[in-house]
Specification:
Length: about 500
């Protein structure tokens, strides 16, 4: 009886304490009431993440960078027009001059010159050379002596330069750069699917946290009600002090658990709100999503789609081409080198600008540059062997990664197929656990089962509800994992293609 009175006194004091805490935090509750509640579905959360999240912005920036890299490569294949000039150049110096008797004399130079040149250059992908068409004019004004003005013009000049032994980087770029850009486009789609998966993760984290708060609040409410019932039964001698203390402990545990779950709820709220781009005044209320779409998939179908759409395919091609390019460059640079330079055109000079273009003379230049290593201690051969070794390493790595990729596809298909069966099981378990707890609660009120039996039913109900949400989350993740691997929309039966911005 002494224990019963102490429990009653303690319980009455707790109620006064709770009322005091509510009055203390009333201003905070009023501020919270001013916040805007926004019900967000899973589909809307994914859409907002793709539009506003930092991960989506990074993915768009990466695609933009790849686009301009591809544009720069394309520019190397087109004619390049350049205008260069010096307007003006002032020169006042003393220069040494060797006379006929072998002595030096210093002479002064005082002049102003202007020079302007226009050139059109076209790279030749087939050979790795370059062809240029140039036009140039120059004027020199002497500021000392007779103070004359001279003009020199090159109205037409064709220049051809060609390395005779070269790996031809531009030809390799024509093979590699288009594949790299295709890889970047597909990688952008993969990154956007990753954004969707991350949004799903944050969404279900908040949903599960909200459910935990709801469960703990209901448990606290039930614990309080059961304590009231048990207090009356104890006064009539229908239950023992041990059962009453157990219910008191349940009440305290429910209060402690509610504080912890509310803290976790605030953290999950901040994570999702920050990812979707909402400010702190918005309170997101996640809606219980439907089960993920059930589609018939086979490993063969998914593997074919992955081989067709996944950026891994283009990555393999690029890496193998780059390895072959390194070998070709090492071979081209290990020994004899030769470059041909040829120039043909017309030039003229006079004291008047007009006459400069009338009395023209031929302008020709041809040169052959050679570089022959005499002794390099096997450095050239070593570079070739090193490039070959790196190419072999790349080949083995690609084979291993290809096997891992196929294993990932097989795992994703198996997880998705098994998840559909799991969803049905946990859905039934959740329904059964709720019915069992309702029956156990009513039976306990009638005094036909113990507190331990009631606690077991409550725990099973809570776990079943959490398990259902967790399995629902897993099913959506596995579904989007298939989309990410294949870049294929299994509901619409079409490839996933994201609209790209115009840069």
């Amino acid at each position: 009886m002494i224990i019963s009175d102490s429990i009653k006194t303690f319980y009455t004091r707790d109620r006064w304490l709770i009322s005091f805490v509510l009055l203390l935090f009333l201003p905070i509750l009023r501020v919270t009431a001013q916040q805007e509640q926004k019900v967000v579905s899973l589909e809307e959360a994914i859409r907002l993440a793709r539009e506003q999240s930092l991960d989506a912005m990074v993915a768009k920036s990466q695609l933009r960078s790849a686009y301009w890299q591809y544009r720069n490569y394309r520019a190397d294949l087109l004619p390049n027009v350049t205008l260069t000039g010096t307007l003006p150049s002032f020169n006042r110096t003393l220069s040494s001059y060797l006379k006929e008797d072998g002595t030096y004399k210093y002479i002064s130079s005082n002049s102003i010159s202007e020079q302007l040149a226009l050139s059109v250059t076209q790279n030749i992908p087939l050979t790795g050379g370059a062809l240029s068409l140039q036009s140039q004019v120059e004027r020199v004004d002497q500021l000392d002596g007779d103070k004359t003005t001279e003009y020199m013009s090159v109205p037409f000049n064709v220049i051809f330069s060609q390395p005779l032994i070269t790996a031809n980087p531009l030809k390799w770029s024509m093979k590699i750069e288009p594949e790299k850009y295709k890889q970047a486009q597909q990688q952008f789609a993969v990154n956007m699917e990753n954004v969707a998966v991350q949004a799903i993760s944050y969404y279900f984290d908040l949903l599960l946290a909200m459910i935990n708060v709801d469960i703990d609040r209901q448990n606290l409410k039930n614990s309080e009600k059961l304590m009231q019932i048990a207090q009356g039964k104890r006064e009539r001698g229908l239950i023992s002090d041990n059962d009453l203390l157990q219910l008191k402990l349940n009440y305290l545990n429910a209060s402690s658990s509610l504080i912890q779950t509310e803290q976790a709820y605030e953290q999950k709220m901040f994570a999702l709100r920050n990812y979707l781009g909402y400010n702190e005044r918005v309170v997101i209320v996640p809606d219980m999503p439907e089960e993920c779409p059930e589609v018939e998939v086979t490993f063969k179908e998914v593997m074919e789609l992955a081989n067709r759409n996944n950026p891994f395919r283009y990555e393999v091609v690029c890496r193998m081409l780059q390895a072959r390019q390194q070998v070709a460059q090492a071979k081209a640079g290990r020994g004899f080198k030769a470059d041909v330079y040829a120039s043909i055109g017309f030039t003229g000079s006079d004291r008047t600008f007009k006459e400069t273009y009338q009395n023209l003379r031929n302008r020709e230049a041809v040169s052959l540059g050679l570089s022959i290593p005499i002794l390099n201690w096997g450095k050239g051969r070593g570079q070739v062997e090193l490039a070959r070794s790196q190419a072999e390493i790349t080949r083995v790595q690609v084979e291993k990664e290809t096997l891992n990729f196929e294993q990932d596809v097989m795992t994703a298909v198996k997880q998705y197929q098994e998840q559909n069966r799991l969803n049905e099981i946990v859905r039934l378990a959740d329904t059964v656990a709720r019915k069992r707890y309702k029956t156990a609660y009513e039976t306990f009120v009638l005094g036909q089962i113990s507190v331990l039996d009631l606690n077991a039913a409550q725990t099973e109900q809570d776990n079943a509800r959490r398990t259902y949400v967790s399995q629902l989350y897993s099913s959506w993740v596995y579904f989007y994992a298939l989309r990410r691997l294949t870049l294929y929309d299994f509901e619409k039966r079409e490839d996933i293609i994201y609209q790209q911005e115009k840069y």
